[in-house]
User: Fold these one by one.
Assistant:
Number 1:
Amino acid sequence: MIRLEKRGTPSRLWALATPLLAVVLTMIFGGLLFALLGKDPVMAIRTIFWDPLFSENAWYYRPQLFVKAAPLILIATGLSLGFRAGIWNIGAEGQYIIGAICGAAVALAFYPAEGWYIFPLMVVAAALGGFLWAMIPAVLKTRFGTSEILVSLMLVYVAGHILSWVAFGPLKNPQGYGFPGSRNLQQYPPAANPELWDGTGIHWGVIAAGLAVVATWVILSRHILGFRIRVAGLAPRAARFAGVSPDRLVVLCLGISGALAGLAGMFEVSGPSGTLSPDFATGYGFTAIIVAFLGRLHPVGIVLAGFLLALTYIGGEIAQSTLGLPASAIQAFQGMLLFFLLALDVLPNYRIRIAKETA
């Protein structure tokens, strides 16, 4: 008989080992998936994890790791604060979209003016847009007790419809020959977010992600807010006795995560993406949930997990072009990582005991 026995204290060893074990199991079962699709599983795994770093074209792919990892890390750091407090913002993808729309709208409102102030205003607008979009589930939860999980998730689809509307309407490029989508912000210098150093992949979004990681670490380890977040997540009743306001914490955590997701959207639309098109949403807001949990909701872990997921993005694109793997298989491969991580998350808190059943 197999049973779970609760540990007296959570195992730090298993807490560190389970993400690595989840990666290994994802490789094994992902390889089986690729084999069922008629592809060489060893070659597929090698292409995803090895080629972006050590192949002949690695000089091109390595800078792309920063480009792909930056929005994931930026969004995941904001989500980690709420997740630690038991506040589940599942709608970061919607906040990412709204932030991109607000940032692009500011830039296009000033077009074709030249001015150093345009990009800072885009930053402010994107952060404010993501913040206000996150305030919808925050207010509904604090006022009416609704589930922030359902509300934030449903708002992703609302944001997607708004994206389609602005791409076909208010922000449509008048010189785009009728095709939906905004002007290319990379070709509008005051609103562009190019590489700061050629060949490195580092742009302002990467800098913002680094600052967010440092700020999150300071909050969690050196600030009273971090103490309140940890207490609220571990012992909600004890947090109330300690003077922690649950409603205020909901607003704060959702607001921070929404603002950072909005910034990620703005840095993407003004940089790697360039245009605000109907297919701008790439799923970064959902993938960041995997990054947050794979990194154990710790800032340093989130950085490592962000680069790992960025590696699967780039390696997956290589596998699609060279091996003919479908994009859906790569998405399933990434999803496996989250499921294995959640399944193994029981091990830090419980021991698995195998014993004979007695009469």
Number 2:
Amino acid sequence: MARHSRKIDILNAASRIVSHQGIFNLTLEAVAKEAGISKGGLLYHFKTKEALVSGMVEHLANNYREKIQSHVNEDTEETGKWTRAFLNVTFNHGYPNKDWNAGLLAAKAVNPELLKPLHDAYREWQHNIENDGLDSVDATLIRLSTDGIWLSELFDVYQIEDYKKKQVYERLMDWLNNLQKENGEQSDTQPINR
């Protein structure tokens, strides 16, 4: 268990460096110093900078996968559960350390192929959202709107005020609930052909 914890400490340190100092300051030496370990200790867990960045992306993707799956498992409604889980997790239960998103920026700069775990997760989420029992275009629009909030924060382009973010979340959730009701009404009167 200590090894897992040390790896997380290292990944947290790398994320802080990218988030606060920039991608070009991400070196193995800087990460070791930030994590409070020797470079040899860091190399035990991550042999290269690329392996470190890969670990950052994998950890982020796995964390979101687990949270979304947990919400899906807890949802008692069949229709819209994947879309609801994606919306809820991204707005309300994202990674507690916002610096983690910096790993995505590092991956794009170091080697875009390191984003594969996130690409795989999104392929899976999009498939599930499109087959969620809702209109697939509406469900996709909700996902893309949700991503827009997240990406504006990631790139620090323009962050809306917290009250406005809450209003956007509530509007998207209302839309989703209305889609679910419409789907329920349709299924009472006619089968949905897929």
Number 3:
Amino acid sequence: MSSSTPARPLDVPRDGLPSVTNEDIDDAVARLASGRGSMAVDTERAMGLRYSNRAYLVQIRREGAGTFLIDPVGIEDQLEDLRGVMSCEWILHAADQDLPCLHELGLYPTKIFDTEIAALLLGYKRVSLQALCQEVLGWTLAKEHSNADWSQRPLPPPLLAYAALDVELLHELAEKLTDQLVEAGRLEWFEQECEEVRLHKPAPPAKQPWRRTSRQAGIRDRRALAMLRELWRARDGVAKRRDLAPGKVLPNQVLAELAARKPRSRSDVVNSPLFRSRQRKRDLDTWWNAIDIAWRLDERALPERKYTEDKDPYPPIKRWDRHDEAAAARWEVMRPKVLALAEELGIRQDLLIKPAIQKMVAWTGWTTQEELVSLLAKNGARPWQIKQVAQPVHAALQAAKVL
């Protein structure tokens, strides 16, 4: 599937570097409305630097209109016309990364073409935008600015060129990948996967996000767990006020180490080797106040050592035979069959059918192929996945006499 065209570097947009649109949004909307067809869309955020996952730049390219770099900061209440003109098909790469922050701006597509999903279904080994542009189109895109601070203003020309290039080739890439999907007989698969991403509802935030850090640090003392919880909440408040990523205020590892030490006084915090830098000492009172809250809690108010709300509902697979021998037998046949099917199709097994669905089906069990089809559909498998998986998996379990 690789292109025979020699790779050529593309460092600046072929039509020149577009200016940034902010208060002049009406002109950009009018020009976009005069264009034709789908819109290539991308965003730039400041993940790991800022508190929110908001879009600090929205890149849009449309045939007949050109490329636009829209700075949405401060004009969020002026985007109504943009929302109307963008109610069409979008071409994106890794759409699940961009759609949430676009939805925050009230921007929704009627259909999407995700070039990453297309590449995965076609069995490409490297599926980054840079890799696909090089392999499919013969263009090399620089990616050295992917972790830049997109919240800075003004954005320097090298960042603007990088941002514009992210949508420069999406139309051409989508056209080539469409031809390949049709040739492979997988266009319907692709459309189902794209629609799943477009309509996907984000998972609710974890009710106790600090629990993951406690598990990683091995904290089991209930008072220390309370300290970690209060420190986490205090840090989140500081991060939100300063619009900083929480890890920039204080890393998770430091929070965990401080909680595990269970400081008895403010001086214990001040003298801790964890707070030698001036930046970390800035919020010493905040950290001590959080710890003091945890010390004052009644024993009955301390967090439990075990938290089961987000726990996997199934026992560890290696112990299935102790809980349900039939489920263990189904898994022993089903798992390698799914892996073999994915290998035959040349795609990843988690794209063929999510491991969570595989585990649920094996644990629940079924009697007829029709029951298996219903079980897969009920738990989120797409029609193309069910068509590829249900019959061969059912037949394999029948042959192994585990149904």
